[in-house]
UniProtKB/TrEMBL annotation, chain A:
Keywords recorded for this protein, A-Z: Membrane, Transmembrane, Transmembrane helix
InterPro entries listed in its UniProt record: Bacterial_PH-related, DUF5808
Organism annotation: Loigolactobacillus zhaoyuanensis
Stretches that traverse the bilayer: 6-25, 58-77, 83-104, 138-159, 171-197, 218-237, 243-261, 320-343
Position of the signal peptide: none
Residue stretches making up the Bacterial Pleckstrin homology domain: 354-442
Presence of keyword Iron: no
Protein name: PH domain-containing protein
Domain DUF5808: 294-319
TrEMBL record, chain B:
Phylogenetic lineage: Bacteria, Bacillati, Bacillota, Bacilli, Lactobacillales
Name this polypeptide is given: GntR family transcriptional regulator
Source species: Loigolactobacillus zhaoyuanensis
Keyword Oxidoreductase carried by entry: no
Signal sequence interval, chain numbering: none
Transmembrane segments: none
Length: 451, 126
């Protein structure tokens, strides 16, 4: 099952990368492949030929990486499947990014060769009336109230049902993510208004549409996230609620992409009808889809493709946030891979020891549990894990169940290699502990020692 | 009104803000009693220091073009008078410009023609 998910995910990422990487090849505000060109040059044959070649290469890469992901189906070990998938993902992202950079260079060369340079302007223009009413179409901030209440109720139910030790990572992660949407809403409200056309009313239309679309997306995102803790609680009663939530997430992603592309098309149409009055050549600050301008005080800026907001790496806070995200993502990824590798190839990786005072349960990827012998109210040896087992946080694959789970509506900590034929359950007042070493005789030995 | 500033110009930024607002008023792009963005708001939009905008606004307030209060923020004044202070300043500035024109050989008629054209330009909203 996990292998199929990886294969599907790989194809999804490859197709998404091709589709999103192709977006910069469509002119937006006189910028095509990160290169600012005069308005009349955008439809010139050499430009069209280069963008066609670029798109063709992207879709070729999407097919190549989709096929390269198929061998995952035949990998037996979860750790190796994840490692292969991760390496493929890095290769995929790196290749797509490299291709984009290569074509940005080509477009720059073409610009120089054709003499399409635009004089660099240091002039800035603002519309005083537009500044005063720039956020009139912004979705009201009070709309976050509903998602905030949903989140609080959900987190409270998590705490009640799963207990503090199991639910605190979820509570922390979801609260921070919800605050991030609120922060992005504030960023959108604070973004400067742009004077792009000769007509103030057209600038107003562009500004209103941009802020409304993005603020609406932030509010909807906060609801999709805010309902998650309630879904987690409900899955401990009816697991199929999770499938409903996955349908909701998929629907939201489709709508999100549709809405941003609709917004971009609206901007392009309006800008196409009313040519730009200010063609500011910002190419020197945009390097390979990243914005780096130490003289710009803004931390977040609208990107030049028209469907995103970028971080200004020229500011110290920008470098800090960018670095922290990179470290967090890589750290999380490699810690999971490390945990799975240790489980698959670490020999006696799931192990237990018992003294007259306490029982110690250990496994990679989760905390070691020390249970006092007098706290154990019941010891039972079973053939397999009960069917009603739901993961709260931890590793749950076809071969292992490690971490915090909910088993038969009770909070449980699992140290289990699946399908060994022997699972030991230790019951305490607060929670159950399930243990199953890779070799069933070790599980039975512990059972005899405790019984 | 549309306000332009050039960071690379030799004219100080506060002076550019000051001049642009007077030009906007003369051309009718700014109306009497019209609200202007607050100092902080305009500084954020132009990506300049707040003190720069405050200096430009303060100069305009001293000259009677802008008024500000806590409740209504910064606004264009409701009416403008060619008072004694203004007339004195106008005389001084024209005195120097007329001297420079004379040095360069411009006649009285030519100078008058330039002023008339400029004045009419503002009346037509240029």
């Amino acid at each position: 099952m996990l292998n199929w998910i990886f294969v599907g995910l790989n194809i999804f990422v490859a197709v998404t990368m091709a589709a999103t990487s192709a977006l910069p090849a469509k002119p937006h505000k006189n910028v095509i492949l990160e290169t600012t060109l005069p308005h009349n040059a955008l439809q010139q044959p050499p430009i069209l030929a280069l963008t066609q070649q670029y798109k063709k290469q992207l879709w070729g890469l999407a097919i190549f990486f989709s096929l390269a992901g198929l061998p995952i189906m035949f990998i037996h070990f979860d750790s190796l499947a994840l490692l292969y998938f991760t390496l493929l993902l890095f290769g995929l992202i790196g290749t797509f990014y490299g291709t984009e950079i290569h074509f940005i260079h080509k477009m720059n060369q073409l610009k120089r060769h054709q003499g399409w340079g635009i004089p660099i302007t240091t002039e800035k223009m603002v519309d005083t009336q537009l500044i005063l009413t720039k956020n009139r179409r912004l979705v009201p901030i009070s709309w976050f109230g509903g998602s905030g209440i949903l989140l609080l109720v959900g987190l409270f139910s998590n705490w009640r049902v799963l207990g503090w030790t199991t639910s605190w990572p979820l509570i922390l992660a979801l609260s921070l993510s919800w605050l991030l949407f609120l922060l992005l809403y504030w960023v959108i409200a604070a973004l400067p208004v742009r004077v792009l056309t000769a007509q103030p009313e057209h600038d107003r239309l562009l500004n209103d549409a941009y802020r409304q679309t993005w603020s609406r997306q932030m509010v909807i995102s906060s609801y999709v996230l805010g309902i998650l803790p309630l879904v987690v609680t409900l899955t401990t009663i009816i697991f199929s609620v999770m499938y409903l939530y996955l349908v909701l997430i998929t629907g939201f992603c489709v709508y999100f992409i549709y809405d941003l592309i609709r917004e971009r098309n609206f901007e392009d149409q309006l800008l196409g009808d009313f040519s730009l009055t200010t063609t500011t050549d910002e190419d020197r600050y945009w390097r390979y889809a990243m914005y780096n301008n130490p003289n710009d005080r803004r931390l977040f800026v609208p990107d030049r493709v028209g469907v995103n907001i970028s971080l200004n790496l020229g500011r110290p806070a920008g470098k800090l946030i960018g670095g922290a995200i990179l470290v967090l993502v890589l750290g999380l990824l490699f810690s999971v891979i490390g945990g799975l590798l240790a489980l698959d190839f670490g020999g006696n990786s799931i192990r237990a020891s018992a003294t007259t005072q306490a029982i110690t349960l250990k496994a990679p990827g989760t905390r070691t549990s020390q249970i006092k012998r007098q706290e154990v109210t019941q010891v039972r040896l079973m053939r397999r894990l009960p069917a009603n087992t739901v993961r709260a946080n931890g590793i749950g694959t076809a071969h292992f169940a490690i971490g915090n789970f909910r088993v038969q509506k009770r909070s449980a900590k699992l140290y289990v290699a699946r399908d060994t034929g022997a699972v030991l359950r230790l019951r305490t007042k607060q929670r159950d502990y399930y243990f199953s070493a890779k070799k069933p005789q070790e599980t039975r030995r512990l059972y005899r020692a405790l019984h | 009104m549309r306000l332009r500033i050039d960071a690379a110009s030799t004219v100080p930024l506060y002076q550019q803000i000051h001049d642009q607002i007077i030009l906007g008023l003369a051309a009718g792009e700014l109306r009497p009693d019209e609200t202007l963005p607050a100092v902080r708001q305009l500084a954020d939009e132009l990506n300049v220091n707040m003190l720069t905008v405050a200096k430009g606004y303060n100069l305009l307030k001293t000259e009677g073009y802008l008024i500000s209060d806590r409740r209504q923020g910064t606004r264009v004044a409701a009416d403008f008078q060619a008072d004694k202070l203004f007339m004195q300043s106008l005389q001084e500035q024209l005195h120097l410009l007329t001297a420079a024109a004379k040095i360069r050989g411009l006649s009285v008629a030519e100078l008058q023609q330039i002023i008339t054209t400029q004045y009419q330009g503002f009346e037509q909203g240029e």
